[in-house]
Write a structure and sequence with these properties.
This protein is α/β, with parallel strands linked by helices. α4 crosses α6 and α6 packs parallel to α7.
Length: about 250
């Protein structure tokens, strides 16, 4: 059984057919990377897993998306509860204009946690998991906006995992970071997969090769190929995949 799965998924933005029959699965405690040129559908597909496309007008979807074998688009699904299980980290770090502590505590307060000791422990645990605790433990009351870009992105990861989701979605999480900060994010992804199932969208093929167990190549709304990352980058089955990773288009 896959942790996440799509079955013949089609998505339309009005008349535009943005995703065309996507079927694939992501194993628990693994990293799946989505690659492909801009506009190919990879971020749209990523947002299907936490139902963020629900917020866009004139979106129509066909097919199924499963989390732990349960259809997340079933009419019985509590979207609020579902989104608690799916953490999301965006391309641009988006800390709240609050203290470092309150950024991480925010999700816990939203779900009704009032115990200071439980929140304290969760904040420390999340910041430790995000490889940020040692850098900020003495300045938790300072504004999160004073952190560097790389630290802000790791803070956003801590905020996402503080409520203990089972899946972490990352949409170009290192695209605006310097090489050192990017390396820290990549190391973090490798460490976090012990506790989370991770899906990452990236334009950086070297990054996909470094951090992922499996890689999916998208083109014009279609899933062209999905396989073990080593195979995708050394011996892809499809000519289009080979052309893309060799730089012939994209």
């Amino acid at each position: 059984m896959f942790k996440l799965e799509s079955q013949d998924l089609h998505l339309y933005y009005g008349p535009k057919h943005a995703l065309k029959g996507i079927s694939m699965g992501v194993d628990a405690n693994s990293v799946a990377a989505f690659i492909g040129p801009s506009g190919c559908g990879k971020s749209t597909f990523l947002r299907c897993f936490n139902r963020m496309n629900d917020l866009i007008p004139n979106v129509k979807m066909e097919g199924r998306v499963l989390l732990d074998d349960n259809d997340i688009y079933d009419s019985d699904t509590d979207v609020y509860e579902h989104r608690k299980r799916i953490g999301m980290v965006f391309q641009k770090a988006n800390p709240f204009p609050k203290s470092i502590y309150e950024n991480v505590a925010y999700g816990l307060r939203i779900v009704g946690e009032k115990s200071r000791s439980i929140i304290d422990e969760a904040v420390e645990t999340a910041l430790t998991q995000a490889a940020l605790w040692d850098e900020v433990k003495d300045s938790l009351k300072k504004s999160a906006l004073a952190l560097s870009g790389g630290q802000q992105q790791r803070l956003c990861i801590a905020r996402a995992i503080a409520v203990k989701p089972s899946v972490l979605l990352m949409d170009e999480p290192a695209s605006s970071l310097d090489p050192l900060s990017t390396t820290k994010i990549e190391d973090l992804i490798y460490t976090l997969k012990k506790d989370y199932t991770i899906v990452i969208v990236t334009h950086n093929m070297q990054q996909a090769a470094r951090v992922s167990d499996k890689t999916a190549f998208f083109y014009l709304g279609e899933l062209i190929e999905y396989d073990n990352t080593d195979k995708i980058f050394t011996n892809p089955s499809k000519e289009a995949t080979q052309n893309y990773i060799s730089g012939r288009f994209g």
